[in-house]
Amino acid sequence: MKNRIRTEAAALWQLAWPVLIGQLATVGMGVADVAMTGHFSAEELAAVSLGTSLWTIVLVTAMGVMMAVNAVVSHEVGAGQTQRVPHVVRQSMWMGLGIGLAGCVLLNASTLVFDYLMLEPQVQEKAARFVHIISIGMPAFAMYRALYGYTTSLNQTKPVMLIAVAGLVFNILINWLFIYGRFGLPQLGASGCALATGLGIWLMLAAMLWWMRRSPVYQETYPFHQSEAPHWPEIRSMLKLGLPIGVTYFAEVSAFSAVGLLIARFGVIEVSSNQIALNFSSLVFMVPMSIGIALTTRVGQSLGEGDAERARFISWVGVSLGVIFSVLSASMITIFRDLIAAAYTSDPAVQRLTADLLLFAAIFQLSDAAQVTTSCAIRGYKITRTPMLIHLMAFYGFALPIGCLLGLAPDWLPWRPQTPMAAAGFWIGLVSGLTVAGILLLAYLHRISQGRIRLSANSGKIAG
């Protein structure tokens, strides 16, 4: 058994580590935006923080919808139905274009929320401009995620890694030029961040298309030897699978982003500290997230082959890997939280509050890793609706209500702190929501994996 666990863990990690590098590089664009504007001015950092809150909600929701591609292609590959893969990928690109354009429109309209947050006028103006500019990258991002799901389902994760690293380098270079106005260029601050990120995403899409055209690995299933119009039954089938994943991602990221928006009333220091803590937490989150993406692929391929026992084994090995990492990451965050804060900003007040918030980030590492790896394993079973409901309940039934109670301490509630706990109160709510999600998803994975094994055994008896 130990050898089997080691073998599966190694196989998962072999698939996950290039995805991890790619995910870290992608999130690194946001880290670079926050860190580089943080050293420019607290006002520009606040604008990027608020703009990123909206951008992240739409971006991650679109990413969730497009994860249907990974589940569908993995099952087709596992079942040996590779002739269907090109058609699925072409239709996923049409779906990505539609999702991306809708996201672009939604992003631009969502800046109206700033009118109700009692922001300083100059911060509001800069935050809105940030969103308007960065929204140009949304169509490219959704189509890139379609190709991302295709290539990872073929166990080809190297291009994901290299392209994302190239995108990060491009983002940092353009940030440096436009934020600080190097070589005679104007100092654009937050707007420079938005432009760098938007252009970088289009570059990543072009690079992925180029890689797929050149690499012989993709030739058997290469989707662009021919073109085809949108096939609505195929797109509708993927949306049926992907929309619940998108809502699941929306529930989590909107809760985190809503915290950033609700904290805005407490001033620039609270907003900036909260964004830095969230930004670094997102960076650490990419490890269990990458293990989860590998889980979706391997569980889906096993189920496509008809091996429900192996799918369950892979699921629990992957969840265990994520939890083991979370213990290590929680320890590191606790020990080095002051250094992490100093790396993001030179403002002493922001540094102090950020270090305090990072303690809460350390606390929720275990439940966060458990919920993301478990939900990804469940997606490998092509089940998305129940995880969606669990996440909605966890974040909107626990995280945000508890956060508002402690963070805002509204006068009309009888049980409230004497004074608002501001950011700290909201982070306590986030810890609560993630814990609820982790526990319920673990129980659900146990149930469906056992049920699939029984179903497979009964089918075998009938066939015999």
Mean pLDDT: 87
Q: Kindly, what is the distance between the CA atoms of the first and last residues, rounded to a whole number of angstroms?
A: 29 Å
Helical amount: over 70%
Estimated structural class: mainly alpha
Beta-strand segment tally: 0
As a whole number of angstroms, the C-alpha radius of gyration is: 22 Å
Low-confidence stretches: none
What characteristic shape results from the CA principal axes? globular
Strand content: under 5%
The H-and-E topology, N to C, reads as HHHHHHHHHHHHHHH
Count of runs of 4 or more consecutive helical residues? 15
Largest sheet: none
Offer a quick outline of the entry.
Helices cover 82% and strands 0% of the residues. With 464 residues, the chain is mainly α.
Helices and strands, with pairings:
Elements lengths: L1 H37 L3 H25 L1 H11 L6 H26 L10 H14 L3 H16 L4 H23 L9 H25 L17 H31 L5 H37 L3 H37 L3 H16 L1 H16 L4 H24 L14 H41 L1
Description:
The structure is a single chain. The chain has 464 residues and is an all-alpha fold. Helix content is 82%, strand content 0%. It contains 15 helices and no strands. Helix 2 (42-66) runs antiparallel to helix 4 (85-110) and helix 4 runs parallel beside helix 9. The protein is globular. The protein starts with a helix and ends with a helix. The model has no long low-confidence stretch (mean pLDDT 87).
